[in-house]
Write a structure and sequence with these properties.
With 220 residues, the chain is of the alpha+beta class. It has five helices and 13 strands.
């Protein structure tokens, strides 16, 4: 149960001290409304409910509304809950949201060839009706059999009614050759050492081949 909020601006710090978290509800064709929530209860919701879950929010004196948690703000130094934004949805209108991508299973390429698994995309931007919004999108790593095997957006098994809003050729995950970064760094270091040593060695060899006495070379 939420309450209407009249305290705004810097004065909301007094609400937090009293155990309330300031919040706002907004949405398509919905006026933004300032509310306040019991901080302890809100922390429980955030800890146990997926960010893409539909919630029933009832403001004291009003009717329940279906909402999504749109944004959560916390104090960087203490992680104290500072503010929450809710987006009120219409069950008959499509919305857009970022759905987390979760990797499951084991990649044969990693077990057989010691491949490194590149997780190129953490979340997928999708469009769907609120009732079709998935909590997460699962990607099975067992499809990565060989080095350079990849999974793209076009390969994802999206639920019915869910459309990806990014290009189908966007990379999601890939099996990379093992220790590729270390090999590149070693080659770069070797090249740098060779470049630093070559001039001195070449100059000395050139002088000795010319048959010039060491003292004469130093005088020059």
């Amino acid at each position: 149960m939420a309450q209407s909020r009249t305290v705004v601006g810097k004065k909301v710090r007094f609400l937090r001290r009293q155990g309330w978290t300031p919040a706002n509800v907004f949405g398509h064709a919905v006026d933004s409304t300032a509310i306040q929530l019991n901080t302890r209860e809100m922390e429980q919701v955030l800890a146990h409910v997926s960010r893409n879950s539909l919630l029933s929010l009832e403001v004291e004196g009003g009717t329940p509304a279906t909402v999504l948690v749109k944004a959560v703000s916390r104090k960087p130094t203490t992680d104290e809950l500072y503010h929450v934004d809710f987006y009120q949805v219409s069950m008959t209108e499509k919305l857009r949201a970022n759905v987390p991508i979760v990797l499951t299973g084991a990649a044969p390429a990693a077990e057989t060839y010691d491949a490194m698994i590149l997780h190129a995309m953490d979340a997928l931007h999708v469009e769907c009706l609120p009732g079709d919004l998935p909590g997460q999108i699962t990607v099975d790593l067992s499809r990565l059999m060989e080095i350079d095997d990849s999974i793209f957006v076009r390969d994802l098994d999206l639920p019915r009614g869910v459309t990806a809003m990014v290009g189908e050729d966007e990379l999601v995950v890939k099996a990379l050759a093992p220790k590729i970064e270390e090999a590149v760094e070693e080659e770069a270091e070797a090249a740098a050492e060779g470049a630093a040593e070559a001039p001195a060695g070449e100059a000395q060899a050139s002088a000795e081949e010319a048959g010039e006495p060491r003292a004469e070379r130093e005088e020059r």
